[in-house]
Amino acid sequence: MANKNILQYYQTTAQSEVRGDLAYAVSQVGNEKTALDCGCGAGADIAYLRTQGFVVNAFDIEEEAIKQCRNRFDGDNAVILSTASFSSYNYPATSLVVADASLFFCPQSEFDQVWRNIYCSLTTGGIFCGSFLGPNDTMAGPDYNAEDFWPNDLVFNEDELRNTLSGFELLRFTEHNVTGKTPQGLPHRWHIYAVVAKKINSL
């Protein structure tokens, strides 16, 4: 069961505004409107994708997240939800993969296979829209209490990430390196690479 910090996170992000990168990614998808939301949380991205006509598969490792999404999208047969981790999920073919602030928590030892699964799930010309944790982020530092949220932090520098994305055409690649406060009011430095990319060849 999710602890109080995770529950608070879901409450504060359930109605998040649509990110510009996600809106742009949606605009790049062709006529086949199928999406996969990796680490869906309380379902803000699912809600937006449904307004755009997408059938959405979504998963999260936290049972509480899937519980909230089942309540939120009750009766909507175009939302298919699963409780699963990145490594245990059975990836369907899809034209759009969304992984915002979720691959941060994929165990390093599992990432290569997870990334292959994500890549292979994308249809020809499919779009990836996601974000990756940079080394200067508070969550990558020694003082971050991972037990308050999730125990794994997957960190990339820019060269590593660009190499990982070698099977894609980069449509947007933005580095965010700013300080501020979390939705819970805690000070935080964000170092995040936001990516929108189009699949171009096999791994």
Describe this structure in words.
It is a single chain. It contains six helices and seven strands; from the N terminus they run ααβαβαββαβαββ. It has 203 residues and is an alpha/beta fold. The chain has a single domain (4-199), classed as Rossmann fold, CATH 3.40.50.150. It has a seven-stranded mixed sheet.
Give a quick rundown of the structure.
The chain has 203 residues and is α/β, with parallel strands linked by helices.
Number of domains: 1
Quote the CATH topology. Rossmann fold
Largest sheet: 7 strands, mixed
- Tally the helices: 6
Helical residue percent band: 25-40%
Low-confidence stretches: none
| Beta-strand residue fraction | 25-35%
* Mean pLDDT score: 90
CATH level-4 homologous superfamily: Vaccinia Virus protein VP39
Head-to-tail CA distance between termini: 36 Å
- Note the run of SSEs as H and E: HHEHEHEEHEHEE
Can you tell me the overall shape?
Answer: globular
Structural features:
single chain; about 200 residues; alpha/beta; Rossmann fold; seven-stranded mixed beta sheet; 7 strands; globular
Question: Layout of helices and strands, plus pairs?
Answer:
Blueprint: H1 4-13, H2 20-27, E1 34-38, H3 44-51, E2 55-60, H4 63-72, E3 79-83, E4 94-99, H5 108-121, E5 122-133, H6 158-164, E6 168-181, E7 187-199
Parallel strand pairs: 1-2, 1-4, 2-3, 4-5
Antiparallel strand pairs: 5-7, 6-7
